[in-house]
Amino acid sequence: MPKVPDERHRTGGEVRGSFHVSWLPDRETKAFFLGRDVMPILYRFRSASNELLYIGVTRTPLNRWHRHRYGTPWFNNVALIEFESISWDRTELEAAERRAIAAERPRYNRAHSQAGKET
Questions:
Q1: Domain region containing 68
Q2: Based on the number of CB atoms within 10 Å of its own CB, is 91 exposed (0-12), middle (13-18) or buried (19 or more)?
Q3: C-alpha distances in angstroms, 80 versus 12, 38, 83?
Q4: What is the pTM of this model?
Q5: 110 located within any domain
Q6: Is residue 85 part of a domain?
């Protein structure tokens, strides 16, 4: 499995992509996200079977994902991280996060979920 962001492209201010989880991230993956810490991103964690586990937003992806890794009991189920970085302000991105959580119902999100599906 590749460790570096794949399927990524840049058009204007937008960055989208995904990468398979392999911690700790290698230099190319870290280099890709350096500089992204001022532009908020919306991210999704998926399992190996493509189950949506979690949706979140952050301005510091590597730091946030590291906190998930060591602070959540379910992180060992994460196999793929998808991300979108668009030139939105934080308020717009948080609204997009709320809509995505409500529509997609990730297994481990509690914030903004209507069903409280956390197990």
A1: 6-104
A2: exposed
A3: 25, 23, 10
A4: 0.72
A5: no
A6: yes
Closest residue by Cα to residue 20 from 7, 2, 32, 41: 2
46, 52 contact by CB (below 8 A): yes
| Cβ(48)–Cβ(103) below 8 Å | no
Q: Quickly list DSSP for 22-88.
A: -SSP-HHHHHHHTTGGGS-EEEEEE-TT--EEEEEEES-HHHHHHHHHHH-TTGGG--EEEEEE-S-
How long, in residues, is the chain?
119
Q: Would you give the DSSP letter of residue 17?
A: E
Structural domains of the chain, count: 1
pLDDT tens-place values along the chain, 119 residues long: 333 344 444 444 556 666 666 555 566 666 666 655 556 788 999 999 999 999 998 888 888 888 998 899 999 999 888 888 765 677 888 888 999 999 999 999 987 555 444 43
